[in-house]
Design a protein that fits this description.
The complex is a heterodimer of chains A (95) and B (586). Chain A is an all-beta fold. Chain A has strands at 5-8, 13-16, 19-23, 27-31, 39-53, 56-65, 71-73, 77-83, 86-89. In chain A, the strands form two sheets. In chain A, strands 4, 5, 6, 7, 8 and 9 form a six-stranded antiparallel beta sheet that branches. Chain A has a three-stranded antiparallel beta sheet with strand order 1-2-3, with no helix packed on it. Chain B is globular. Classes of the chains: A mainly beta (95), B alpha+beta (586). The A-B interface holds A 4, 6, 8-13, 15, 18, 20, 23-27, 41, 43, 45, 66, 69 and B 4, 34-35, 37-38, 54, 226, 264-265, 410-411, 413-414, 447-449, 463-467, 472, 496-497, 554, 556-557.
Chain lengths: 95, 586
Amino acid sequence: MATRLRLLDDAAWVSVNDEREVGTSEVWPVAESFCSCALAWLVVEAFVDVGVDGRRVEARAHGHCLNCGESGTTPWLPVGKATDDGFALVEGVRR
Amino acid sequence: MPTDVERWKDEVYGNEIREHLFRFAEEGWDAIPDDEADAWFERFKWWGLYHQRKGQESYFMMRIGTPNGVLEPGQLRTVAEIADEYARGPVDNPEFGAAYCDWTTRQSIQLHWIKLEDVPEIFEKLEANDLSTQQACGDSWRNIVGCPVAGKDTHEHIDAWPVAEELHETFKGDDEYANLPRKWKVSVTGCDQGCGQGDINDLAFEPAEKHGELGFNVRIGGGLSRKEPRLARDVDIWVPEEKATDIAAATTELFNDHGDREDRYNARIKFLVDEWGAEKMRRVLQEDYTDWDLETAGEDLRDQYTYNAGGHEHGDHVGVHEQPDGNYYVGLNVLVGRMGVEATSELADLAEEYGSGEVRLTQRQNVIVTDIPEEDLDDFLAADLLDDYSPDPHPFMRGSIACTGTEFCSLSIVETKNRQVRYARWLKENVDVPAGVTDFHIHLSGCTASCAQPQIADVSLRGMKTRKDGEPVEALDIGLGGGLGENPHFAEWVEMRVPADEVPGYIQNLLDTYEAEREDEETFREFIQRHEEDALQELADPEETDYDDPYMHNTKMTWYPYAEDDDMGSSPAPTNGDGEPISADD
């Protein structure tokens, strides 16, 4: 199954199969990979890139940690899964 | 690799979009194939239609470009009638009602909840009255801004209105300039007060004298977006009035050739000026894009600029002002730039009854009625409408600007207009205005696109998120001390991620400190500028007060923040041309 991915609205949204599925302004818990906090609370300010690994949709996001203030771009993090019934958002800690 | 947007533009762009737009309007919203929708939405922008955000599918914001903010007699009535008939959504806004017009910071007009099916009728009504949405959005010449009272200003050196008009006539609809790497914002100033806000535009014309002749100095590469604010750079060029269009064509062609089409975030000409510097910009313009010898810059009037310059002389165009012809113009305050359709119709009535019928829009989201004879002034000023849209407003009401926000915009992170209305009212009721302050600028922008121009305000507010009591809440970054004038200055970002319900308390504490610690007649901007970064952070703390904020939750993920049931799944959108929900199975 081909999955159409793109960033829209000045990178404020990840579009999956022509639906805006993942938006900025969310606060994500991110494990280890973003800053020195064991658990970063990341404010997603803009998406940098979007890709797919199998059915898993991943994105790199620019933002900052609400705990320590560290700002930067995340490594690839899962944002959801393309299924036969549509798109399912990832919930909980991103790693 | 070309971006999606460049690829879509290569296929169809510019004037030709109109025929497709009309075809979809005829066939209905459903006729747009799902896998082409984003491409068409991107293209529709060129004709002033901006698809509203997730949860509001099938509805559009329509932007009408009014060059220099000038609405000729009769045009405001047309806008009011269109808003009344076509700009009504499924749910009323609790502050502004069912239908309203937004006056923007670029002297344009925005209507919401427009249905695709109604576009041909709306265009017909607009065009019958010499109004248009053409190039109001998209990658081309945007609405040309300038001093809103050009031609009617006692401070004027050159009448900027015919210059803006000629630029508008030349660059709107010309296929050669239809597809630029990114938006192109132009300002023309003719007065000695700096009202055109040229410093924050891609291309700015500013009055200057050379060889005893008045003309324009040219500045290039200003803009506020994406945390990369730039002031337009002096490229050491003066042109006489009759060459304004030629130098505008030259700079546009340079931008067309050298702007970055590979990366939209690097595409605005401000980044090219960063890379090249002003000297190279001038050299390339001379060698490759002009066939006359460019004059070096003339003597400008910037040392006289008072508009938003941090003093007390001229923060906006609100109030009663005499025109050179002995008539008067009266600037009316429109809180956050939004006016209900009934008030808009009433304004059109008043303009016809007491003035020439002309109304102008300012870059501070306000309106101006021009050409009022002295003997009619008192009657005009006694009109009921002016109780709500005052020529002498309270400083906190007067200084409030807000962008569209999550109510309709995909980019915004927070709710803005209704929040700023509540802020202004609370500040008016609870905060003492520091002595001598008549006009205190608080600009709220929902994201880094900076449509509310937060960086040039006394208090700059920019949408953000934070956590409060363990929950994510809407928040604002706070900047201080921005403004224009001879030496423009962008706000210093001082407090980050302040929960939105603690911002009014912060402003109250800040103004208490200012009143207590200011030296003599020191203005707020001077007060901020004499403090170092660390000291700025010590000026005040955010604080909860009795201010109540109903929009702390994630308004971006509601279908409409003011709906009783605002859950995304409860949206009636998309709807058909009659406003009836279209089932997913249809």
